[in-house]
Automatic annotation (TrEMBL):
Organism: Kitasatospora misakiensis
Gene3D superfamilies given in the database record: MetI-like (1.10.3720.10)
Superkingdom: Bacteria
Protein name as it appears in the record: Phosphate transport system permease protein PstA
Pfam families: BPD_transp_1 (PF00528)
Skewed-composition ranges (Low complexity): 408-423
């Protein structure tokens, strides 16, 4: 009988002993420490390195020396402004040259753009700090006395000492006029923005054109408009209410333009989801669009307030001038802080000039307080839960943790892996 004639071997009825062998301990052993040998290196994305600092310092020092040589020895130039401008241009050229010695062209252009952005921001901050410092230094003589914020100028003459008189009546007038103007301008401006961005139609283009034209309207024209219509035509007296109407004319186009841009940034999918759930157009705008654009609308209000808070000519034409306290904006003349500054800074008396600069410092503080308050009232960003919702989520999480069963430790014998059961071999004999 040949090998081909042999019958295939029958499968063994007894399972092999290898199937019942205990699993090797190497499978459950801890990973070797050699795998994690060596110190861990952290990757730093962005930031400022030592080379960046030295490159900027080298460019600053080198450009300053070259600028001094050009202005003092070579070129017949003079003046601090030209010196600083030339220094900045030479600094950019020097930074680009030093950067080319270290990095590639793309990285040099990127870092040069970063330097220009940072220097521009530093310039703006420096100018603001310089203005605040100058106003504070000139007005500190009057602002350091408590009477400046507690008294009026009713019993103070030009030659009175600095410890007499104050600007409390101007502070009250500015707050009331700005408050009324905000009360009138914000609803009208947001309503116009909603009309142009959500409703549309044939009148949307003429309204947008009119708003854009009013954005560049001179403040004196707004004052003359209220003077001619409200005071001369309808016979109302000059008052803080008339001044607030003039400020409203100036605030409304700023609020409208900014609010329209913000509303257009709301994703259209949110509107579609509201319409799919059966919401009407006005309910979609009220419950979806406006809450989503809340932060941007607050910014629009802040821009409008910044446009109106420092105006003098509309208040001078519509509110008049007074040195007494008038807390009623609907009757009698009423003064504001900008008008107070304009009236006293031109007098040839040092005490009056100091009071004017102190009023300017007070106006800065009032504007800062109003803007911070507006930001706080702006609330949370879109999608961010409120404080009540955060408290509810925290309470629900604590309750869930309290109801969660505590895991019971398994016995030591149960921790070992169970042996593998052999598969039953089947086959035809």
């Amino acid at each position: 009988m040949t090998t081909l004639d042999k019958a295939p071997a029958e499968p063994s009825a007894e399972p092999s002993a290898e199937l019942f062998a205990e699993p090797s301990a190497e499978l459950f052993a801890e990973p070797s420490a050699e795998l994690f040998a060596g110190p861990e290196r952290k990757l730093k994305l962005g930031g400022v390195t030592r080379e960046d600092v030295f490159t900027v310092l080298g460019a600053l020092v080198g450009s300053f020396g070259l600028d001094w040589v050009l202005y003092e020895r070579v070129l017949p130039f003079s003046g601090a402004l030209g010196f600083l401008l030339c220094w900045y241009l030479l600094f950019l050229v020097g930074y680009y040259g030093l950067g080319r010695l270290q990095w590639g062209g793309l990285m040099v252009r990127e870092r040069l753009a970063s330097v220009v952005a940072w220097s521009s921001g530093a310039l703006v901050v420096g100018l603001i700090a310089d203005q605040i410092g100058y106003v504070a230094s000139r007005g500190y003589e009057a602002a350091q006395h408590a009477n400046f914020l507690t008294e009026t100028m009713e019993r103070t003459a030009s030659l009175s000492p600095i410890t007499s008189g104050g600007a409390i009546h101007a502070v009250v007038g500015s707050l009331e006029q700005l408050g009324l103007a905000t009360l009138f301008a914000v609803p009208l401006g947001i309503a116009a923005a909603v009309f142009m961005s959500e409703v549309g139609g044939r009148m949307a283009r003429p309204v947008r054109t009119l708003v854009e034209a009013m954005t560049a309207l001179p403040s004196i024209v707004a004052g003359l408009f209220i003077l001619g219509i409200v005071i001369l035509t309808f016979g109302f007296d000059k008052s803080g209410f008339a001044a607030s109407l003039a400020l409203t004319v100036m605030m409304m186009p700023i609020v409208t333009r900014a609010a329209e841009v913000v509303i257009r940034l709301v994703p259209g999918t949110l509107r579609e989801a509201s319409y799919a759930l059966g919401g009407s157009q006005w309910r979609t705008v009220w419950n979806v669009v406006l809450p989503t654009a809340r932060r941007g609308l607050v910014t629009a209000v802040v821009l409008g307030m910044a446009r109106a808070v420092g105006e003098t000519s509309p208040v001078l034409l519509t509110a008049g001038f007074t040195s007494r306290m008038n807390a009623n904006p609907f009757e009698g003349h009423q003064i504001s802080l900008p008008l107070y500054i304009w009236s006293y800074v031109k007098l040839p008396v040092d005490e009056m000039v100091a009071r004017a600069f102190a009023a300017g410092l007070t106006l800065m503080a009032v504007v800062l307080i109003l803007f911070v308050t507006a930001r706080m009232l702006g609330g949370r960003a879109a999608g961010e839960p409120s404080r009540r919702q955060k408290r509810r989520l925290a309470r629900a999480e604590r309750e869930a943790r309290a109801l969660r069963p505590v895991p019971v430790a398994a016995p030591a014998s149960a921790t070992a892996p169970a042996p593998l059961r052999p598969a039953v071999a089947t086959g035809e004999h």
